[in-house]
Amino acid sequence: MAARAPRHLAEPPKRFGLSPLQRLFLVAMLALAAVTAAISLLTREAGTGGGREAAPATTRAQPAAATTTVTATTTTATSVPAARPIRPTPGNLLSDGDFERDLGGWTPLGGASVERVEGGASGRWAVAVTPGESRARPAGMARSGVATSRADTTYEAIFWVQSRAGGQVVLALRERAGGQVASSEEAGYTLPDAGWHQLAVEHHTRVPGSSLAVEIVGLNLPADGRLLVDAIDLQVE
Fold first, then answer.
1. What average pLDDT is seen over the chain?
2. Euclidean distance between CA atoms 98 and 89, whole angstroms
3. Which of 1, 37, 99, 154 has the fewest other C-beta atoms within 10 Å?
4. Which superfamily, per CATH, for 107-236?
5. Single pTM value for the model
6. Largest CA-CA distance found in the chain, in angstroms, rounded
7. CA separation (Å) from 145 to 70, 87, 148, 176?
8. At 42, phi and psi to the nearest 5?
Protein backbone atom coordinates (compact mmCIF):
# COMPACT_ATOMS: atom_id res chain seq x y z
CA MET A 1 0.00 0.00 0.00
CA ALA A 2 1.39 3.28 -1.09
CA ALA A 3 2.09 6.00 1.40
CA ARG A 4 -0.36 9.04 1.37
CA ALA A 5 1.13 12.38 0.41
CA PRO A 6 0.97 15.25 2.80
CA ARG A 7 -2.32 17.15 2.66
CA HIS A 8 -0.89 20.44 1.55
CA LEU A 9 0.82 18.62 -1.30
CA ALA A 10 -2.02 16.36 -2.26
CA GLU A 11 -4.65 19.16 -2.65
CA PRO A 12 -4.42 21.46 -5.65
CA PRO A 13 -3.00 24.84 -4.85
CA LYS A 14 -5.62 27.51 -3.88
CA ARG A 15 -5.89 30.58 -6.13
CA PHE A 16 -6.31 33.97 -4.62
CA GLY A 17 -8.89 36.36 -6.29
CA LEU A 18 -12.28 35.91 -7.99
CA SER A 19 -13.30 33.50 -10.56
CA PRO A 20 -14.41 34.74 -13.96
CA LEU A 21 -18.00 34.12 -13.05
CA GLN A 22 -17.64 36.08 -9.82
CA ARG A 23 -15.95 38.96 -11.60
CA LEU A 24 -18.74 39.05 -14.16
CA PHE A 25 -21.31 39.12 -11.40
CA LEU A 26 -19.44 41.88 -9.55
CA VAL A 27 -19.21 44.04 -12.69
CA ALA A 28 -22.90 43.59 -13.31
CA MET A 29 -23.72 44.62 -9.74
CA LEU A 30 -21.50 47.70 -9.94
CA ALA A 31 -23.04 48.74 -13.25
CA LEU A 32 -26.53 48.31 -11.81
CA ALA A 33 -25.56 50.39 -8.77
CA ALA A 34 -24.13 53.13 -11.00
CA VAL A 35 -27.27 53.25 -13.14
CA THR A 36 -29.46 53.37 -10.03
CA ALA A 37 -27.38 56.20 -8.55
CA ALA A 38 -27.53 58.19 -11.79
CA ILE A 39 -31.31 57.78 -12.02
CA SER A 40 -31.69 58.84 -8.39
CA LEU A 41 -29.50 61.91 -8.95
CA LEU A 42 -31.41 63.00 -12.03
CA THR A 43 -34.75 62.49 -10.29
CA ARG A 44 -33.64 64.56 -7.28
CA GLU A 45 -32.39 67.45 -9.43
CA ALA A 46 -35.60 67.57 -11.44
CA GLY A 47 -37.89 67.25 -8.43
CA THR A 48 -36.08 69.22 -5.71
CA GLY A 49 -34.50 71.89 -7.91
CA GLY A 50 -30.93 70.80 -7.92
CA GLY A 51 -30.61 73.73 -10.33
CA ARG A 52 -32.30 77.09 -9.63
CA GLU A 53 -35.94 76.86 -10.53
CA ALA A 54 -37.01 79.32 -13.18
CA ALA A 55 -39.36 82.04 -12.01
CA PRO A 56 -42.82 81.88 -13.44
CA ALA A 57 -43.26 83.98 -16.53
CA THR A 58 -45.10 87.24 -16.07
CA THR A 59 -46.81 89.44 -18.64
CA ARG A 60 -46.80 93.17 -18.15
CA ALA A 61 -49.56 95.18 -19.68
CA GLN A 62 -48.11 97.64 -22.19
CA PRO A 63 -49.60 101.13 -22.28
CA ALA A 64 -51.95 101.63 -25.16
CA ALA A 65 -50.62 103.75 -28.00
CA ALA A 66 -51.86 107.33 -27.91
CA THR A 67 -54.68 107.92 -30.31
CA THR A 68 -55.40 111.32 -31.83
CA THR A 69 -58.92 111.92 -32.96
CA VAL A 70 -59.39 114.54 -35.59
CA THR A 71 -62.84 116.02 -35.70
CA ALA A 72 -63.78 117.50 -39.00
CA THR A 73 -65.51 120.83 -38.89
CA THR A 74 -67.63 122.36 -41.56
CA THR A 75 -67.53 126.08 -42.18
CA THR A 76 -70.43 127.66 -43.96
CA ALA A 77 -69.42 130.61 -46.08
CA THR A 78 -71.48 133.74 -45.72
CA SER A 79 -71.65 136.94 -47.66
CA VAL A 80 -70.17 138.93 -44.74
CA PRO A 81 -66.35 138.94 -44.92
CA ALA A 82 -64.38 138.33 -41.75
CA ALA A 83 -62.78 141.41 -40.21
CA ARG A 84 -59.11 141.71 -41.04
CA PRO A 85 -56.81 141.90 -38.00
CA ILE A 86 -54.78 145.01 -37.30
CA ARG A 87 -51.12 144.36 -38.11
CA PRO A 88 -48.93 147.13 -36.70
CA THR A 89 -45.89 147.67 -38.90
CA PRO A 90 -42.58 148.03 -37.03
CA GLY A 91 -40.91 151.33 -37.82
CA ASN A 92 -44.04 153.08 -39.10
CA LEU A 93 -43.59 156.82 -38.65
CA LEU A 94 -47.39 157.19 -38.73
CA SER A 95 -48.55 155.76 -35.41
CA ASP A 96 -52.24 156.27 -36.27
CA GLY A 97 -52.14 155.38 -39.95
CA ASP A 98 -54.83 152.73 -39.46
CA PHE A 99 -57.47 155.29 -38.33
CA GLU A 100 -58.67 153.01 -35.55
CA ARG A 101 -58.68 155.94 -33.10
CA ASP A 102 -59.40 159.17 -34.97
CA LEU A 103 -58.45 161.43 -37.88
CA GLY A 104 -56.11 163.65 -35.90
CA GLY A 105 -53.72 165.66 -38.09
CA TRP A 106 -55.42 164.93 -41.44
CA THR A 107 -56.86 167.76 -43.53
CA PRO A 108 -59.07 167.56 -46.67
CA LEU A 109 -57.82 168.66 -50.11
CA GLY A 110 -59.82 170.11 -53.01
CA GLY A 111 -62.85 170.97 -50.91
CA ALA A 112 -63.39 167.30 -50.02
CA SER A 113 -64.76 165.97 -46.76
CA VAL A 114 -63.18 163.07 -44.89
CA GLU A 115 -64.77 160.80 -42.30
CA ARG A 116 -64.12 157.50 -40.63
CA VAL A 117 -66.26 154.62 -41.88
CA GLU A 118 -66.46 150.94 -41.06
CA GLY A 119 -64.98 148.32 -43.34
CA GLY A 120 -61.22 148.94 -43.40
CA ALA A 121 -58.51 146.93 -45.09
CA SER A 122 -56.89 146.45 -41.69
CA GLY A 123 -58.98 146.54 -38.55
CA ARG A 124 -62.46 148.01 -38.36
CA TRP A 125 -62.11 151.57 -39.64
CA ALA A 126 -61.03 153.34 -42.82
CA VAL A 127 -61.35 156.91 -44.19
CA ALA A 128 -63.88 157.86 -46.86
CA VAL A 129 -62.95 160.84 -49.05
CA THR A 130 -65.96 162.63 -50.57
CA PRO A 131 -65.47 165.33 -53.25
CA GLY A 132 -66.95 168.77 -52.71
CA GLU A 133 -69.99 169.96 -54.64
CA SER A 134 -67.97 172.02 -57.12
CA ARG A 135 -65.55 169.20 -57.99
CA ALA A 136 -63.22 171.90 -59.26
CA ARG A 137 -60.19 170.20 -57.76
CA PRO A 138 -59.32 166.55 -57.12
CA ALA A 139 -60.62 165.39 -53.75
CA GLY A 140 -58.09 164.04 -51.28
CA MET A 141 -56.45 164.43 -47.89
CA ALA A 142 -53.00 165.27 -46.53
CA ARG A 143 -51.00 165.26 -43.35
CA SER A 144 -48.06 167.58 -42.72
CA GLY A 145 -45.24 167.28 -40.20
CA VAL A 146 -45.26 163.49 -40.24
CA ALA A 147 -41.53 163.26 -39.56
CA THR A 148 -38.34 165.28 -39.60
CA SER A 149 -36.29 163.97 -42.49
CA ARG A 150 -32.70 162.84 -42.43
CA ALA A 151 -30.33 164.00 -45.16
CA ASP A 152 -29.81 161.78 -48.19
CA THR A 153 -32.42 159.25 -47.06
CA THR A 154 -35.16 157.45 -48.99
CA TYR A 155 -38.65 157.29 -47.49
CA GLU A 156 -41.55 155.17 -48.72
CA ALA A 157 -45.25 155.77 -48.07
CA ILE A 158 -47.63 152.84 -48.55
CA PHE A 159 -51.42 153.21 -48.80
CA TRP A 160 -54.32 150.77 -49.01
CA VAL A 161 -56.91 152.25 -51.37
CA GLN A 162 -60.33 151.23 -52.64
CA SER A 163 -62.51 152.85 -55.30
CA ARG A 164 -64.34 151.89 -58.47
CA ALA A 165 -62.62 150.09 -61.33
CA GLY A 166 -60.86 152.63 -63.53
CA GLY A 167 -60.55 155.20 -60.76
CA GLN A 168 -57.24 157.03 -60.57
CA VAL A 169 -55.24 157.75 -57.43
CA VAL A 170 -52.17 159.99 -57.00
CA LEU A 171 -49.87 159.56 -53.99
CA ALA A 172 -47.32 162.17 -52.97
CA LEU A 173 -44.44 162.54 -50.51
CA ARG A 174 -43.41 166.18 -50.06
CA GLU A 175 -40.39 167.65 -48.36
CA ARG A 176 -41.07 171.07 -46.80
CA ALA A 177 -38.51 173.55 -45.53
CA GLY A 178 -39.13 177.16 -44.47
CA GLY A 179 -42.81 176.86 -45.26
CA GLN A 180 -42.13 175.91 -48.88
CA VAL A 181 -42.05 172.61 -50.74
CA ALA A 182 -38.34 171.89 -51.24
CA SER A 183 -38.88 168.72 -53.25
CA SER A 184 -41.51 166.02 -53.74
CA GLU A 185 -42.35 162.79 -55.54
CA GLU A 186 -45.70 161.67 -56.93
CA ALA A 187 -46.96 158.27 -58.14
CA GLY A 188 -50.19 157.81 -60.10
CA TYR A 189 -52.21 154.57 -60.36
CA THR A 190 -55.32 153.36 -62.19
CA LEU A 191 -57.32 150.87 -60.12
CA PRO A 192 -58.10 147.63 -62.01
CA ASP A 193 -61.18 146.76 -59.96
CA ALA A 194 -63.23 147.75 -56.92
CA GLY A 195 -61.14 145.79 -54.40
CA TRP A 196 -58.50 146.95 -51.95
CA HIS A 197 -55.08 147.69 -53.48
CA GLN A 198 -51.72 148.46 -51.90
CA LEU A 199 -49.98 151.44 -53.53
CA ALA A 200 -46.71 153.20 -52.73
CA VAL A 201 -44.59 156.27 -53.45
CA GLU A 202 -40.91 156.91 -52.64
CA HIS A 203 -38.94 160.11 -52.03
CA HIS A 204 -35.23 160.74 -51.51
CA THR A 205 -34.67 163.70 -49.20
CA ARG A 206 -32.49 166.66 -50.22
CA VAL A 207 -32.75 169.14 -47.33
CA PRO A 208 -31.54 168.01 -43.88
CA GLY A 209 -34.08 168.64 -41.13
CA SER A 210 -36.97 169.22 -43.50
CA SER A 211 -40.52 168.17 -42.67
CA LEU A 212 -42.26 165.34 -44.52
CA ALA A 213 -45.90 165.45 -45.63
CA VAL A 214 -48.04 162.71 -47.23
CA GLU A 215 -50.94 163.25 -49.63
CA ILE A 216 -53.48 161.20 -51.52
CA VAL A 217 -56.01 162.45 -54.08
CA GLY A 218 -58.55 160.66 -56.25
CA LEU A 219 -59.36 161.37 -59.90
CA ASN A 220 -62.48 160.29 -61.77
CA LEU A 221 -64.19 159.30 -58.54
CA PRO A 222 -67.69 157.81 -58.71
CA ALA A 223 -70.74 159.97 -58.20
CA ASP A 224 -70.94 159.12 -54.50
CA GLY A 225 -67.27 160.10 -54.02
CA ARG A 226 -66.37 156.73 -52.53
CA LEU A 227 -62.58 156.72 -52.10
CA LEU A 228 -61.51 154.61 -49.15
CA VAL A 229 -58.05 154.90 -47.61
CA ASP A 230 -56.55 152.75 -44.84
CA ALA A 231 -53.35 151.39 -43.27
CA ILE A 232 -50.94 154.16 -44.30
CA ASP A 233 -47.35 153.22 -43.53
CA LEU A 234 -44.35 155.57 -43.77
CA GLN A 235 -40.98 153.85 -43.59
CA VAL A 236 -37.30 154.66 -43.98
CA GLU A 237 -35.86 152.57 -46.81
1. 75
2. 10
3. 1
4. Galactose-binding domain-like (2.60.120.260)
5. 0.61
6. 194
7. 55, 24, 7, 9
8. -65, -40
